[in-house]
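Would you be willing to look carefully at the protein I have copied below?

:::
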Amino acid sequence: MAIFLNRQGENYLLGVWKMEEPISELLSLLPEKAYYEQAIAQFKTPHRIQEWLSVRVLLNHLIGEHHIVQYHPDGKPFIIDDEWYLSISHTKGYVAVIVSKTVSVGIDIEYYAQRIHKVSAKFLRDDEVINTFNGDSTWSLLLHWSAKETMFKSINDIEIDFKHHLHILPFLVQEEGMFETREYKTNRLQIFEMNYLLDSEFVLTWQVDKK
């Protein structure tokens, strides 16, 4: 099994799965195999099948039982029996899942790539601070983007402008930590405590609503 990261918080479970198994092996790791064999017929590429199955294998690993994941019209996933709050993300070679029985959650994973520099003007605010980690500002840019993706998944509003509605407060980038973010789109004006970690290949951000 290619569980890459498995973490349990006070009221959440989180996992990162490294996609290394062939489709046949992923199917063998799932209960209700016939259901998944039928479900993957909707996909046209082996990569998309591998990604979709890896999310289900990771979810089953985290909560230990079969659950059907469906999607709202805005694309946000939910578990059909509504016993768990759920957020999903994927990037090159990895999928990430976070679940909670008590509070809303959000997660995002982003593969390390220099191209983030080319699009940073589209999501960075003038009052956001980009610093370096090991002499490389790419990590800070990726964390800003990833945190805003996590915020978007945590806010019940699809008309969000990442540059104007979402704000990352200044923080010093380390291998792992937490920083504060704010949203200016809803009447709640929510403040999020954003958890993060850096791997040699990706950044991961996640947030868990307060009770």
